[in-house]
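Appendix B. Raw example, untouched.
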Amino acid sequence: MAMQLSKSAQARRYGFFPGCVAKESCRELFDSTMLLADRLGIELVELTAASCCGASVLNDTNRDVARVLNARTYAQAEALGLDDVITICSTCTGHMRAANKELLEDEARMTQANAILGKFGAHYAGGVRVRHLLWLLIDDIGLDKLRSMVVRPLDGMRIAPFYGCHIIRPESVNGWESARNPHSLEDVIAALGGEPVDYAGKTRCCGFHVQLEKDGIAANMVGQNMRMAKEKGAEAVLTPCPLCHLALDGYQGDAAKRWGRTDLPTFHLPQLVALALGVDPTRLGMQKHLISPGAVLEEYRLAPMHVA
């Protein structure tokens, strides 16, 4: 039976920065996150006036502009009385934490950012933490509490974690867990009743950004990683990043000629957690996935095939 969170946990409010992909290309990831938050008893306050984190493109072009844009987001959170900015995107996590680190460690950069923000009546005092939803689940909710809330256990489903790049590297920016030997996704999978699959590709790049430079490279990277997972017995993949979700779901077909068919359905973190915590699977947008998770969900009695 699911246990209720304490009153203090229910009242916890977080600033929410969903990022671009979850609001546009994969709206179901945003919706799944909000449904999960409701199930967890926390409030995610979307920072609706925030702009893009800058990702690689703006950061590579003008680091100062990217830093000020992120400072603007943190200022919005502070103005709302929020200490945390939660993301559901590894790329957003990495870039936003890097910008915050630069602001907090360099007075000149903070002064520069606030000089610009001041023209628009904003100010960043440096009191915001940027964290990923994955970290919130483990640090704030706790694995024991999460395990107690499961109403639809994964029943031993073999799931390959896929960290990708930006949530674990560089450790000097993120540093929440080891980049060489992370285990947070495995811990969550186990708490939900699944069986984590260990394989070499779990901390490699998904190839999403490389696809912008040359066709075919991303598909090859995805194919190799998914082949490794498949050969270790994986039946599905779990990732904390919408960009990895897009790449892993979208490029397996293109990779089949070289790496063979893998057909591993890919879940974004809030989708799978929300499913295990009892959210109606028809509300999690899994029918939009290119590689349908319907068969594996039906096999483990998690959802009828037609809903996914």
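End of appendix B.
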